[in-house]
Amino acid sequence: MNPRILIIGFQRSGTTLLRRLLCQHPDVAYIIHEGRLLKTTNDRQVVYECAQRIAEENGIKANLRNSAWGDKVPFCASSPKKIVGYCRKWQAMFGEKARVLIIVRHPYDVAISSEKAFEQNPERILRVFASSMPGFISTMLEDDSVMILKFEDLVSNAADVLSRICRYCTLDSSAEAVDKMSSAGRGELRYFDRVEPSRAFAYKAEGVSVPNGHFQLVLETLNRIEGMLYEE
């Protein structure tokens, strides 16, 4: 069906890792890196032309009209509330071909990873996460046309999660296709599984305060998503 795949999630939640893995699928021409293709237009022709230009600038020769492709758009701490609208716009733009993949990660790890990568205050990241994520996830869980997955499940059981993603995206889900993706990302997957073991919540930072009265709601909301249970 040549799906149009939108990868979305809070910053430092695994959107880039998921993009890299999907780019290795034999049926996927290209997943654009933070193209934000729908930010300023509702014209499908303009979107295709922009996506095609970005792909060609990165050495991709495929005709995107006849290929599976997509965009990876993390939403940052500065603008989390815009993300529901972006998902809906993607679905409206591409209709039955639209696929929305949402990836989440334990908020402690998001906060500390943001501190390491961007030198952002982890307490501020937790506050923004707590204020924006419950509503977003609750809304998306009511939509059975999207797929929500957990970063920790992808890292610990890549083959199974990638197989489910392929079926959802109407891509070849054979063992060969899935192995091609997981093999290409083996080093990165091993790194996250070994060095950043979110399952043990090893990054619970000393001195980082949890937003009072909000954090339990965050965990309860995230734990409505299938997969590993998050704990404080």
Task: State the gist of this model.
This protein has 232 residues and is of the alpha/beta class.
Name of the top-level CATH class of the domain at 4-107 and 146-202: Alpha Beta
How does CATH name the architecture of the domain at 4-107 and 146-202? 3-Layer(aba) Sandwich
Q: Portion of residues in helices? A: 40-55%
Distance between the termini: 41 Å
| Spatial arrangement of strands, main beta sheet | 2-3-1-4-5
Strand content: 5-15%
Indicate the structural class: alpha/beta
- What is the name of the CATH topology of the domain at 4-107 and 146-202? Rossmann fold
Helices and strands, in order, run as: EHEHEHEHHEHHHHH
What radius of gyration results from the CA coordinates?
17 Å
Main sheet attributes: strand count, strand direction, barrel closure = 5 strands, parallel
